[in-house]
C-alpha cells in the first residue's frame, strides 16, 4: 500500500490537485492479496497524512485465460489452472493469463 500511495502522490503532484477523495485499486485473484489487510494498511497510512479522509475502493479481478492452441478466452474460479482443460478444444494447461494477476492503481479522484 505504501507504493500505491507513493504513486498517488506523484500523480496528484503532476496534475496539480491537492485533496484526495478516493482511489480504486484492482487486484487479481492470483495475487494472493488479503483485501482486509490492504484496507487496514490504507487506513493506518492515511490517518494522519495529507490523504486523511480519502476512501479506498478495492476491486478483485477474476481469472481470465486464453487458450494458446485455439485462442478461446474464458473465465474460471479455478486458481490451479495448470491442469484445467480448455472448454472449447480440451487442451490442458496451455493458457495465457488475460486478467487476474497483480495489483494496479486503477483510478484516483481528487479535488484542486
UniProtKB/TrEMBL annotation:
InterPro entries (alphabetical): Hydgase_Ni_incorp_HypA/HybF_CS (IPR020538), HypA/HybF (IPR000688)
Keywords attached to this entry: Metal-binding, Nickel, Zinc
Pfam families registered for this protein in UniProt: HypA
Recorded family membership: Belongs to the HypA/HybF family.
UniProt-recorded name of the protein: Hydrogenase maturation nickel metallochaperone HypA
Lineage, opening ranks: Bacteria, Pseudomonadati, Thermodesulfobacteriota, Desulfovibrionia, Desulfovibrionales
Amino acid at each position: 500500500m505504501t507504493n500505491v500511495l507513493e504513486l498517488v502522490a506523484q500523480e496528484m503532484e503532476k496534475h496539480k490537485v491537492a485533496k484526495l477523495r478516493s482511489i480504486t485499486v484492482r487486484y487479481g485473484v492470483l495475487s494472493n492479496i488479503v483485501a482486509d489487510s490492504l484496507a487496514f494498511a490504507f487506513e493506518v497510512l492515511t490517518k494522519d497524512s495529507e490523504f486523511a479522509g480519502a476512501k479506498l475502493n478495492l476491486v478483485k479481478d477474476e481469472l481470465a485465460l486464453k487458450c494458446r492452441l485455439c485462442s478461446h478466452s474464458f473465465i474460471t474460479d479455478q486458481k490451479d489452472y495448470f491442469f484445467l482443460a480448455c472448454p472449447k478444444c480440451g487442451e490442458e494447461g496451455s493458457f495465457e493469463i488475460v486478467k487476474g494477476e497483480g495489483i494496479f492503481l486503477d483510478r484516483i479522484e481528487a479535488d484542486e
